[in-house]
Design goal:
This protein has one helix and twelve strands; from the N terminus they run H-E-E-E-E-E-E-E-E-E-E-E-E. The chain has one domain (42-219). Strand 7 (143-144) and strand 8 form a beta hairpin. Strands 3, 4, 5, 6, 9, 10, 11 and 12 form an eight-stranded antiparallel beta sheet that branches. Strands 1-2 form a two-stranded antiparallel ribbon. It is α+β, with helices and mostly antiparallel strands. The longest helix has 54 residues, at 11-64.
Length: 232
Amino acid sequence: MRASSERGFTLIELMIAVTLVALISAGMLMAMRTSLLTYQKTGDRLEANRRAINVEQILAREIGGLMPVSGNCPAGQGPGSPMSFFRGTETTLHLVSSFSIAQGARGNPQILEFQVVPLDNGAVRLVVNEIPYTGPASMMGLCQNRFYRPVPVGPSSFVLADNLAFCRISYHEPYDDVFTPVRWLPVWNQDRLPSGIRIDMAPMRPEPGGLPVIGMTVPIRVNRDVMIPYAQ
């Protein structure tokens, strides 16, 4: 009887083939995983950059939409006297704006309460509250003896910037004439409006290759006397 001349695969050859296929598959999976991780890191960096840009845009629109209005601030048991809604310190800022985060530029005017909040890790956070402005009586409950109440921070507060090394607000004096030098002040308790607002801030841990949250200066282009009412 003639022996068969057909050749087949030995067990060793089959094991080598399976091992090669497994190694190639593992290499492809590792390459795909590396690509997905790179894509995720790129997406996170782009999202962080968009947040940094949005912070600057929101602050510029909120402060740029400042409305020159006054309100009635109670004093003791009496009705008190009118004063400008605009007041500020290095860590707080109160104003009425035509722009809000919730409604944009086409919504109702809002009382904005900015507050720099310290965190447990030594960083700070910049938040803002929005309260509907309904007229001079809107100041009732927010002010006493020409001083605003402490800004409450809660679930309804908008976080504008988080994990900051510092955040300081200062106010530029108006130009009475071109020859008189003016200063940046840490507190603004005057009834007239400043000519600009500067917010100095920096991230606690800068992201390599990302856009950091940086300070900004917003000019105030309203030169109307707040304490003079509009003509009917």
